[in-house]
Amino acid sequence: MSEKTAKKRKHSDANGDEVSEISKKTVHIQCPYLDTINRHVLDFDFEKLCSVSLTRINVYACLVCGKYFQGRGTNTHAYTHSVADGHHVFLNLHTLKFYCLPDNYEVIDSSLNDIKYVLNPIFTPEQIKQLDCNTKMSRAIDGTMYMPGIVGLNNIKANDYCNVILQCLSQVRPLRNYFLREENYANIKRPPGDSSFLLVQRFGELIRKLWNPRAFKAHVSPHEMLQAVVLWSKKRFQFIKQSDPIDFMSWFLNSLHMALNGTKKPNSSIIYKSFLGHMRIYTRKLPPPDADDAAKVDLTSEEYAEMITESPFLYLTCDLPPTPLFTDEFRENIIPQASVNLYQLLSKFSGQTSKEYKTYKENFLKRFEITQLPPYLILYIKRFTKNTFFVEKNPTVVNFPVKNVDFGDILTPEIKAKHKGKTTYELVGNIVHDGTPEKGTYRAHVLHTPTQQWYEMQDLHVTSILPQMITLTEAYIQIYELKQD
């Protein structure tokens, strides 16, 4: 620092009011401590709070050791850290400005832009278009090669049920494209005091980090996203306790829809635009089995007439047939049925098959008929049944094609004609449950569209997999994409 500048700084310190004016003039473009920055220890995935006082206000990241500290002025934790440990370069996590402490001047240097981009990745419309044809691998700072969008998510303790849903949703193109540009949802107004919009912001940040082509490491920790989930689900979903992915997905999609000011209208949010379909439900009440003959005869009354209701859906629940058991050749070991066809499960929604549903007092016979297919169809294959004592898992393997799945086969001819031939889907995400109902784990299979390569993702582990292997797994949740051509 020049002698003249030092005098100016002393003069400004003495006169108090002039500090800001003169410090603006003495912006240091070159800093002698830039070579002390250690990019290997920088991790911006965790909560932005001071490591000493745990406050979220005015937090700075030390670019030498990676820790977070509050403040910049004298007697603040960041200032004390810079003097005690000799770490001088700090980044304001809110304004994205760099400072040198304890000298307290702003550092402007283009070599720091990569750090700024890792903290807040920004995508232009042109870059988003390129994502669907990009086959180029990216290199992390430790030399690891990774494909943007195909990145492992850290399992903090027992949040693999969240990770698989977040991985599959990040491959849904309209949803991904919407959240990659913060401008799309930045101006949404929420009622005063309502902070559920934080869920939207955290999901947007996570999507941008997953698709970041210039990341420092080849994995992402969904820590802030999961904290928002714990908070807004009122601890219904936690990352220290295993839950059901279908419950989480249902809650998450509806919460995002509401936070984006969504209504009951089909195009009121990006969630409904992507996943909302419609069905017709035919319900007929059944007479009680222990009723006398006189009560059974009067089935023409209005009480037992068939009711028709229109219902929207975000996913379809497919019921697995109960496992018929076979004995082996020695008649000792019991072998469950090996597999069932996907179209056999989908016949439930053709409007032809009836199924009995029991409530505490009454029994109903229901038929389901799909009237409108969504651009992205989610299938939930119901594997778990609960009884009074325990949860039982149905291990039946579902045979399903990965490409060219025609859902038009389950539609009536009139409804199929309305879809104008656009009823062919392709699998883009597949969630699998392994193990017992109590201690099982989840993994996801996702399709990288540009390379048409399938990847298996289990927390931090990402490996390529053959599509033929996917069909042999115990599929639990599947996401299909409508073919536009």
Automatic annotation (TrEMBL):
The top EC class is hydrolase
Q: How does it assemble?
A: The U4/U6-U5 tri-snRNP complex is a building block of the precatalytic spliceosome (spliceosome B complex). Component of the U4/U6-U5 tri-snRNP complex composed of the U4, U6 and U5 snRNAs and at least PRPF3, PRPF4, PRPF6, PRPF8, PRPF31, SNRNP200, TXNL4A, SNRNP40, SNRPB, SNRPD1, SNRPD2, SNRPD3, SNRPE, SNRPF, SNRPG, DDX23, CD2BP2, PPIH, SNU13, EFTUD2, SART1 and USP39, plus LSM2, LSM3, LSM4, LSM5, LSM6, LSM7 and LSM8.
How is this protein annotated for GO cellular component?
spliceosomal complex
- Which keywords appear in this protein's UniProt record, sorted alphabetically? Cell cycle, Cell division, Hydrolase, Isopeptide bond, Metal-binding, mRNA processing, mRNA splicing, Nucleus, Phosphoprotein, Spliceosome, Ubl conjugation, Ubl conjugation pathway, Zinc, Zinc-finger
Q: Which PROSITE patterns match?
A: USP_3, ZF_UBP
All residue ranges annotated as the UBP-type domain in the record: 29-126
The superkingdom listed in its UniProt entry is: Eukaryota
**Where is it chiefly localized?**
nucleus
Q: Which SMART domains match?
A: ZnF_UBP
GO function terms (MF aspect):
cysteine-type deubiquitinase activity; zinc ion binding
Q: Which family does it belong to?
A: Belongs to the peptidase C19 family.
Q: Where is the USP domain?
A: 151-483
What EC number(s) does this enzyme carry?
Answer: 3.4.19.12
Q: Which CDD domains match?
A: Peptidase_C19M
Q: Does the keyword Ribonucleoprotein apply?
A: no
Catalytic activity, reaction form: Thiol-dependent hydrolysis of ester, thioester, amide, peptide and isopeptide bonds formed by the C-terminal Gly of ubiquitin (a 76-residue protein attached to proteins as an intracellular targeting signal)
Q: Give the matching Pfam families.
A: UCH, zf-UBP
Q: What is this protein called?
A: Ubiquitin carboxyl-terminal hydrolase 39
